[in-house]
User: Fold this.
Amino acid sequence: MDGYTPAQAAAVTGVPLAAVHKAIDGRLIRPRSARSGATVRRLLTKEQLIYLQLEAEGLRLLPVRTRREIANAIQRSPKTDLMPIGNGTVLFVECKAARRKVEGQLKQLAHIAEMVVSDPEIMRGTPVFKGTRIPVDLVAGMLAQGATAEEILEGYPTLNKEEIAIAPLYMRAFPRRGRPIRRPWQGKKAKGRKSFPLSTLLKSA
Assistant:
C-alpha cells in the first residue's frame, strides 16, 4: 500500500480515530493528500504509524513540541532504534519495538484485506467474504450485538472462525461511506459486546 488512511492507522495502532485526526490537525504528523474522483483522502506513511504507535504507548504525555520533533525525526530516520529527546539529553525513545509491532500489524491488515472482496456485481459492491455473498458488516454487527462465533457459524456454515474474528477489524479499517444498510438486528437490544484485540485476531501470516 502506498499510504494508510486515518481509519487504518487507528485499527493498526489502537489509537482512537479521533486521536489520529487530532494528531493530524495539530500538525504532529502531516499526511499527504490523494484524490480519487471527487474524494480527497489523507494518507499516512508507515513512519507516521510508528509515531502513532508510540503515542499509544505513552508518548502523548510529553509536550507537544517534543512530540512533533520526534515525529519528524522518525520520518527522517525510520530505521533508528533509539530516538534522542531534545539536545544534549540522556533521554531516548525506544522505536524498535514500536516499528516491529506496526510492521506485523500491517502484514495482518494486508492478509485481512485479501479475505474480503468488493465487486459491483456482488451485493452491489458491499464487501463480502471471498467466495461467499455474506457481507462483512453483517457479521461485525452480529458480534456487536453479542452473537458468538459458534452461533454465527450455525447460520453461515460457509464461514470460518478466522473470517468471523476479522470482521470488526475490517470494518474499523475500511469503513464504508454513505448511508449504512439496514440490518435485521438493528434497533434490538444488545446482549453484550465482543472485543478482539488486533494482536489476537490472527496468527502470523
Remarks:
- The radius of gyration is 19 Å.
- Confidence is low (pLDDT under 50) at residues 183-197, 199-205.
- The chain has two domains: 6-108, 115-201.
- The chain is about 45% helix and 10% strand.
